[in-house]
Amino acid sequence: MSQLEDVADRDPAYVVLSPAMLEAVRLLDLYAPAETTVVFWGETGTGKTHLARLLHARSGRPGPFREMAGGELLDSGLAPDQLFGHVRGAFTGAQTSRGGIIAEAAGGTLLFDDFQLLRAWQQYLLLRVLDEQLYRRVGSDRDAPVGCRLVFGMCEHPDDLVAQGKMLKDVRYRLEHCIVRVPPLEERREEIVLLAQHFLARCPAETRVTHGPQRFTKEAITALEAASYPGNVRDLKGRVKAAYLHAQGEETIGAHHLPGDGRGSVRFDPQAEH
After folding, report:
1. pLDDT band at residue 267 using 50, 70 and 90 as cut-offs
2. 3-state SS, residue 188
3. pLDDT value at position 78?
4. What distances in angstroms separate CA 104 from CA 81, 83, 89, 156, one per listed residue?
5. pLDDT tens digits, residue range 102-155?
6. CA 21 to chain centre
7. 8 Å CB contact between 120 and 170
């Protein structure tokens, strides 16, 4: 079994059958061993974080994978401390020194997800990190090297974010051109059934309901294949989990167990369980 197949066996986000996903993984393989910043962009729910984890797994880096979402820094005056940490006495209440998330990711990979949510002043904090691979803890007069790989996740291409005023040009110029587009599920329709089966297999552990169905009927598979998924892979996962709960006590998931048969509001008949 190949490494990719092994990862796919453990996480359905890595199911790769479509040309669009094959291209994403091809680029990921090229960039994984290199000392370069990588950008993953695509619609919400497409699996950008999962691919960033795969990039880390295939990079051979011994350190951890860490993630910080742009929303975590939104309107936060503590952003420098969250990113860089502080030294003792840096501000009131700083009785001990503490490393930020960059230090926590030492030797590994740090993903900045939802980058488009960062305000301009927060993006400025990253300029020196990207340019010189250096940062400074709050209250310190000494620079420290950035010991992790930086990866960015965003919902649109960096050039589009610049055009919309959501990304500083100075940041864009420092992101290089190692950019991976993560396709929407609409471009991966041949993967829907396999993804759904992976999610179904995870349902007992994730829902703590062990007396649920173990497979889909042909009608359910047809409905899944015909449905649209505006929330992409995350949307599909949620629908499968709901159907699993609707079909508790039964051997199979039928089309009537799916939320709206995959087309709208939940249609759940309690009598279907009895």
Report:
1. very low
2. helix
3. 78
4. 13, 10, 21, 28
5. 999 999 999 999 999 988 988 999 999 999 999 999 888 899 999 999 999 999
6. 15
7. no
Check if the beta carbon of residue 95 is closer than 8 Å to that of residue 88. yes
CB 110 within 8 A of CB 149: yes
What is d(CA 84, CA 73) in angstroms, rounded to the nearest whole number?
A: 13
Q: Cα 48 vs. chain centroid, distance in angstroms?
A: 4
For residue 227, the SS3 value is coil
- Determine contact, residues 273/250, Cβ cutoff 8 Å: yes
Count the neighbouring beta carbons within 10 Å of the beta carbon of residue 45: 19
Cα gap 202→160, rounded to integer Å:
37
pTM: 0.84
Cα-Cα-Cα-Cα torsion 159, 53, 22, 46, nearest 10 degrees, comes to -60
Sign of the torsion formed by the C-alpha atoms of 47, 48, 49 and 50? positive
The residue assigned the tokens 């479509």 is 18
- Quote the tokens at residue 189: 């329709």
Enter the tokens of residue 43: 């619609």
What is the rounded CA–CA span in Å between residue 227 and residue 238?
Answer: 13
Amino acid symbol at 220: A
- pLDDT for position 72: 75
**Structural domains of the chain sorted by starting position, each given as residue range(s) with its CATH number in brackets:** 3-181 (3.40.50.300), 186-273 (1.10.8.60)
CA 149 vs CA 24, 55, 80, 134: distances in Å: 19, 10, 18, 12
